[in-house]
Amino acid sequence: MFAVENISFGYPSSGSLLTDLSFTINKGDVACLLGPNGAGKTTLLRCLLGINKVQSGSIKIKGRRIGDITAKELACAMAYVPQAATTVFPHRVLDIVVMGRTPHVGFTAVPTDEDYAMAEESLAELGISHLADCQFSRISGGERQLTLIARALTQRAELFIMDEPTSSLDYGNQVRILRVIDKLAKQGYSIIMTSHFPNHAFLLCNKVLIMKNGKITAMGTPEEVVTDQILSELYTTKVRIVELDDGVSDKLKVCVPMLT
Ligand SMILES: Nc1ncnc2c1ncn2[C@@H]1O[C@H](COP(=O)(O)OP(=O)(O)OP(=O)(O)O)[C@@H](O)[C@H]1O
């Protein structure tokens, strides 16, 4: 559905950064991009979104290069979920969520009752209807992240591109967001997300891309690539993978950074 083929990219000021990256994302995939600070994860997401124009290679959605499709078509194919930064503007949550309709109605058009109904539907889907009239700047980080996911749902795109969806969230809110992502994937949406938490890969991802210095150095299932050796090399610190009984079905793997 989404194919990245041999792309390379560099910022004019700093030369080559991403080198010859290739991978595919299929319907229902939850792909986790792991890598240390500065590896190029956000830069890659910006390439996928068409914000950074790749210097070689191609990015295709259902066989069509993203450069050959209109901005509106692109926005209908993929939705960006940024980190849940706050805003100084006193927007209501519902107003933020209805912004997901912008690619469909145009930047100057006023959203219709139908657009608001879709926004309300997305809020209900994520269990946050009660926040509709709250000010976005006054809700918690977890609630803001759910609002931004609701906005992406309202956009009706099939692929969600999420930049550290659980950053600065407490454990409870991390799990809440991960459950939402898992549910979206089971409904057939595809997700590519960056994370600084390799454990998230074990919890819900079926694909992991390991990225270092602008290159994908390993790719596969969490079991294949989230290993002691790969993580220790990736983060240049000793990391152990241990198994624990999750009390429900199977053994759950977890990553633990070691101080010694
Ligand atoms: N607009 C820009 N112009 C020039 N260099 C940039 C720009 N944006 C990012 N960079 C550089 O590109 C490199 C990769 O940055 P990027 O934000 O993609 O990494 P990242 O893996 O997302 O890091 P983090 O985990 O810290 O968010 C860094 O060295 C960064 O300084």
From TrEMBL:
Taxonomy, superkingdom: Bacteria
Q: Kindly give the PROSITE patterns that the UniProt entry links to this protein.
A: ABC_TRANSPORTER_2 (PS50893)
Q: Does the keyword Lipid biosynthesis apply?
A: no
Going by the UniProt record, its keywords in alphabetical order are: ATP-binding, Nucleotide-binding, Transport
| Species of origin | Sporomusa acidovorans (strain ATCC 49682 / DSM 3132 / Mol)
InterPro entries, from UniProt? AAA+_ATPase, ABC_transporter-like_ATP-bd, Metal_Ion_Import_ABC, P-loop_NTPase
**What terms describe the molecular function in GO for this protein?**
ATP binding
Question: ABC transporter domain: which residues?
Answer: 2-238
> Keyword Membrane, does the record have it?
no
Write down what this protein is called: ABC transporter ATP-binding protein
